[in-house]
Structure to design on (620 residues):
């Protein structure tokens, strides 16, 4: 069975990598059901108490709502801005196009903590100059999360627009369609998978963001990720595991739903 | 009225001249082919007519109306793209219906006309398929139906057959020609395939490097090329330098006097275009009313039903001559090359 030896090795290796990725997630889900008072091993028994306790803590409940709200906003607004921007970037040649593209994508590569700090300082300066408070307000947070989400939209939507065969737009034009009709009846349906995927990735990118939000949340207004970090500073019990499990579930469900409506692997 | 007239149309891309000043008239109901090698400007010319490329200068008229500045959507032309350009998210029927919907035609009539259009290309049974569930030939026919259903004034086809296999290409070629004739539709067909062009068109426009080299019927172009380029492109394997003396007389470089076309306006240095299959080899000179010159066999290639000889005249001119499969010549042998005076076509000396 000489021929299958490499195949076997390959399979074992793939499984190992998969295990390495899935293990921590599996463990945290498992731990969330332990009845141990503090995080420890092995489980003394199993309980759903940690979920109730997490839900009873206002910082988690409100954090979850704020995070969902922010992510939804980021996702939709980055579509509203990102789709026209991507169209312009792919359709028209203009001076500095590459520079604009890179600037739009840059939040993806600038470390979140740097971006967050920069936003914060900018908000403060803005406040000094105009006396309009932005830091610590909801619009301030939303704006920052738009920045987190936008590069995802730009990247996925431009990639799909570049991949689209331009002659189908020309065919539509020769059949009598104007630019608006062409966009809504031909281009939009063809890039739909990319739109759905980018909405999802934008949502997730915003939802899991910690660094940018750190600087920008206000009194009594924390996102879920910040609530988790604050809680961990003083406590070490399975509440955190329960919160994490809920997050994993939310994201998994989103991925599954999205995959039903758009073949995600084809969006890239 | 749907005659197409190009008057001094040209296209420049910065420094690049894609199409030099071109004037052309395509009659109503005529099928004209743009033929030429890659990069000669066929697509660019077609796309200017379709409205996808702005002209640098000149005017385009269809049925006497100036359409030069009209967007494609306002030209009412049927355009068939090389890659078909079907809408991937729409079924066959929806693809075909699209142009009618743009014309705000009632649902019932659309359904009717889509049905007719699809049966015309024998695809009625596939109306509900998506383009990706069709073969190349079927996609091609959908593209054709979609372009025809809007009852366009003219039909423009950019290498519509180049993605099909040989047999299908033959079928589609015939199908397109029959449809075009039955609808009496003014049509431009772009191709770089000589065979396709000859068999499908009323007239050919042979192009080279952004310039029209010759316009004529398939027979004109095939038998009486107007330039060295066209001769070469149409399969005249030999372009022999000749000094034209007028009155139907000429002289090869080796001094041999030959009879040539009396009507030709060419004087002085010219090229005699000759097809390999219109010349013959013999071991002794043939009758005097045939052009004959002595040569040495240099090489031969067995091609099954015939043999291709490469022969050299004494002035180093090389000729390709086609002989019968069992002809008795071998490399190194002396021989006589002969051809009928009317087998040769004189073209101006110039680069092929
Ligand atoms: N957008 C463009 N910018 C610059 N040059 C162009 C552009 N489009 C075409 N050209 C040039 O114009 C010339 C004619 O191109 P065109 O596409 O019309 O050729 P073609 O005859 O259709 O060739 P093929 O048989 O390969 O399709 C080519 O030299 C090409 O490089
Ligand atoms: Mg072309």
């Amino acid at each position: 069975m000489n021929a299958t030896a490499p195949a076997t090795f390959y399979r074992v290796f793939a499984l190992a990598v998969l295990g390495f990725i899935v293990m921590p997630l599996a463990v945290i889900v498992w731990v969330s059901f332990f009845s141990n008072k503090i995080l420890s091993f092995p489980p003394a028994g199993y309980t759903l108490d940690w979920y109730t306790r997490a839900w009873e803590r206002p910082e988690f409940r409100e954090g979850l709502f704020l995070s969902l709200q922010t992510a939804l906003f980021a996702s939709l607004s980055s579509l509203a801005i990102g789709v026209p921007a991507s169209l312009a970037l792919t359709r028209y040649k203009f001076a500095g196009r590459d520079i604009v593209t890179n600037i739009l994508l840059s939040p993806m590569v600038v470390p979140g903590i740097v971006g967050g700090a920069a936003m914060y300082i900018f908000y403060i300066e803005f406040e000094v100059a105009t006396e309009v408070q932005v830091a610590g307000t909801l619009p301030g947070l939303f704006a920052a999360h738009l920045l987190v989400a936008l590069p995802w939209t730009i990247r996925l939507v431009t990639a799909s627009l570049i991949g689209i065969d331009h002659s189908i737009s020309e065919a539509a034009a020769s059949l009598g369609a104007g630019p608006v009709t062409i966009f809504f009846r031909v281009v939009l349906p063809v890039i739909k998978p990319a739109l759905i995927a980018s909405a999802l990735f934008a949502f997730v990118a915003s939802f899991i963001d910690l660094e940018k939000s750190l600087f920008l949340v206000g009194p009594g207004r924390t996102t879920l990720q910040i609530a988790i970090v604050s809680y961990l500073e003083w406590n070490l019990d399975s509440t955190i595991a329960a919160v994490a499990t809920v997050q994993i579930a939310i994201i998994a469900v989103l991925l599954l739903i999205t995959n039903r409506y758009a073949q995600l692997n084809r969006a890239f | 009225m749907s005659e197409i007239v190009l008057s001094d149309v040209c296209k420049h891309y910065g420094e690049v001249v894609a199409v030099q000043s071109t004037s052309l008239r395509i009659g109503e109901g005529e099928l004209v082919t743009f033929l030429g090698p890659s990069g000669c400007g066929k697509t660019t010319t077609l796309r200017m007519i379709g409205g996808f490329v702005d002209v640098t200068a000149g005017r385009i008229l269809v049925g006497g109306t100036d359409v030069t500045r009209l967007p494609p959507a306002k030209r009412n032309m049927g355009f068939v793209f090389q890659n078909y350009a079907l809408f991937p998210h729409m079924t066959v029927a929806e693809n075909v219906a699209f142009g009618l919907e743009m014309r705000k035609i009632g649902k019932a009539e659309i359904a009717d006309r889509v049905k007719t259009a699809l049966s015309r290309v024998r695809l009625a049974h596939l109306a509900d398929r998506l383009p990706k569930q069709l073969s190349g030939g079927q996609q091609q026919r959908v593209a054709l139906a979609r372009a025809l259903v809007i009852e366009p004034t003219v039909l423009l086809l950019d290498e519509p057959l180049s993605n099909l296999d040989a047999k299908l290409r033959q079928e589609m070629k015939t199908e397109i020609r029959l449809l075009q004739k039955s609808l009496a539709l003014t049509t431009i067909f772009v191709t770089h395939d000589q065979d396709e062009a000859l068999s499908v068109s009323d007239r050919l426009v042979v192009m080279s490097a952004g310039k029209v080299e010759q316009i004529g019927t398939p027979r004109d172009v095939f038998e009486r090329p107007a330039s060295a380029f066209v001769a070469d492109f149409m399969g005249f394997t030999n372009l022999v330098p000749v000094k034209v003396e007028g009155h139907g007389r000429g002289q090869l470089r080796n001094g041999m006097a030959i009879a040539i076309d009396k009507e030709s306006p060419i004087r002085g240095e010219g090229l005699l275009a000759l097809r390999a299959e219109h010349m013959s080899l013999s071991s002794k000179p043939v009758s005097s009313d045939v052009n004959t010159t002595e040569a040495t066999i240099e090489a031969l290639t067995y091609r099954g039903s015939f043999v291709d000889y490469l022969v050299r005249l004494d002035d180093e001119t090389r000729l390709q001559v086609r002989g019968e499969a069992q002809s008795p010549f071998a490399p190194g042998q002396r021989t006589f090359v002969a051809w009928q005076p009317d087998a040769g076509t004189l073209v101006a000396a110039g680069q092929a």
